[in-house]
Write a structure and sequence with these properties.
The chain contains 13 helices and 15 strands. The chain folds into three domains: 158 residues, P-loop containing nucleotide triphosphate hydrolases (Rossmann fold), CATH 3.40.50; 174 residues, Rossmann fold (3-Layer(aba) Sandwich); 78 residues, 2-Layer Sandwich (GMP Synthetase, Chain A, domain 3). 34% of the residues lie in helices and 21% in strands. The two termini are 48 Å apart. The protein is of the alpha/beta class and 452 residues long. The strands form three sheets. It has a six-stranded mixed β-sheet, with helices on both faces. It has a six-stranded mixed β-sheet with strand order 8-9-7-10-11-12, with helices on both faces.
Length: 452
């Protein structure tokens, strides 16, 4: 495991901007609104050949009675406990607040190396005009920086890495031959995404609140299960576009879609007590369009009285409204009680491996010949459409190329017929793509050599 450097501080002092600067990409949402970063975010970083993990904590506001702020403060304290070194970020322009001083007091008690990043010092002139004496009085090494422009960040990291232990040899790739399963949990607001992730990892890692929209960022967490590594992502709830009103929520929805693109498997989570079939169908379609394996999970199953009857009704609803992912596994779970949540991980590994599989070319050729023998493709301008060869050209999603004398003549209905037959023949529960390619030996009669 790589050493961990934690970035902590009260809301809106620039932790997320500094975190993004250190890791070299925009991962945490940055917006001039206190408390935008609510969950811990982890990412790997490199500074002059020294690799480490960085964690961006939620905004730290001591002695607040608000439920959400208290939960985020607890996460900051948890990040402090697990870090090898800590960067306390303060706003140099505003000076020390009571929250900064309280946090500094907690950090001193923790006994971990602490560096103080005096943020928003954009130039040498500004640094000379600022009185940083009260910052030095806290007893930590002070580094004037501008997270937005990068000024002073290299000096901060030079000092930070001296406090990080060397990673053990061979620790980077000792996860086994099979790669990690990237699992994103998506759904409408307040269907229980964070509660489900917390149940899977066994701690209050994600903010879970009855208030819709408490998850703003797409947040990652790594766990082990049955010898496999999983990278779990909790995403912001996806609403209908007309319901998205503030700019941060727009950013969050975009991040959720990017999390889907990065994932191998997407859990589309819905609420057994408040079905949103139309919205859930759109979310599932976004995952399928991007070629991601899908698990349909119905949460809050503990609140359902007539479980057998409700399960049958939901299966019918899924068959009617989720036809495009009708192949996807359907699970009834309770994140609150833990019912069948581990099954999600087992299924995710199975689907990940299936989407990565290579189908044997002789078996594909046997399949395509059987399909056209049982139900030939419609004629094209009076001429038959024939398939001569099939072979796999890609994974995640499984992509099969079929050589054909008239690829442009294969209509949508026949493509669905072949896709359904491919799933049935190879027992696939993941997205597949068919590509029809022109047979190259000669131009078929009745065409002008068009290609698919």
């Amino acid at each position: 495991m790589l050493p961990l450097l934690a970035f902590v501080g009260r809301p809106n002092v620039g932790k997320s901007t500094l975190f993004n600067r250190v890791i070299g990409r925009r991962l945490a949402i940055v917006e001039d609104v206190p408390g935008v970063t609510r969950d811990r975010q982890y990412a790997e970083a490199d500074h002059d050949g020294r690799r480490f993990r960085a964690v961006d904590t939620g905004g730290f506001t001591p002695d607040s009675e608000a439920q959400l702020v208290r939960a985020v403060r607890e996460q900051a304290e948890a990040a402090i406990r697990e870090a090898d070194a800590i960067v306390l970020v303060v706003d140099a322009e505003e000076g020390l607040s009571g929250a900064d001083q309280e946090l500094a007091r907690i950090l001193r008690k923790g006994g971990k190396p602490v560096l103080l990043a005096a943020n928003k010092v954009d130039s040498d002139r500004r640094e000379k005009n600022l009185d940083l004496g009260e910052l030095h009085a806290l007893g930590f090494d002070v580094f004037p920086v501008s997270a937005e422009h990068g000024r002073g960040v290299s000096d901060l990291l030079d000092a930070a890495v001296t406090h990080l232990p060397e990673p053990p040899e061979g620790s980077e790739e000792e996860q086994g031959q099979k790669g990690p399963v990237r699992l994103a949990v998506v759904g409408r607001p307040n269907v229980g995404k964070s509660t489900l992730l917390n149940r899977l990892i066994g701690e209050e890692r994600f903010v879970a609140s009855a208030m819709p929209g408490t998850t703003r960022d797409a947040v990652d967490e790594q766990i082990e299960h049955r010898g496999r590594t999983y990278l779990l992502t909790d995403t912001a709830g996806l609403r209908k576009k007309r319901h998205i009103v503030d700019k941060v929520e727009v950013f969050s929805a975009q991040r959720a879609l990017r999390a889907i693109e990065r994932a191998d498997v997407v859990v589309v989570l819905t609420d057994a007590t408040d079905l949103g079939v139309e919205q859930d169908a759109r979310i599932a379609a976004q995952a399928e369009e991007r070629g991601r394996a899908v698990i349909l999970a119905v949460n809050k199953w503990d609140l359902v009285q007539d479980k057998e009857g409700q399960a049958e009704r939901l299966r019918k609803e899924a068959a009617r409204h989720l036809q495009h992912v009708g192949y996807a596994p359907l699970l009834f779970v309770s994140a609150k009680e833990g019912t069948r949540v581990q099954k999600i991980l087992d299924l995710a590994a199975e689907l990940h491996d299936q989407a990565s599989t290579r189908l044997k070319t002789p078996e594909l050729n046997d399949w395509v010949q059987r399909m056209q023998d049982e139900h030939p493709a419609p004629l094209s301008r009076g001429y038959p459409v024939r398939f001569s060869y099939a072979y796999q050209v890609g994974t995640q999603p499984i992509t099969v190329a079929i050589q054909c004398n008239r690829p442009e003549a294969v209509d949508a209905g026949y493509r669905r017929y072949l896709t359904s037959g491919l799933r049935e023949r190879f027992e696939l529960r993941v997205p597949v793509r068919l590509v029809f390619r022109q047979k190259t030996r000669r131009t078929p009669r009745g065409t002008k050599g068009q290609r698919a």
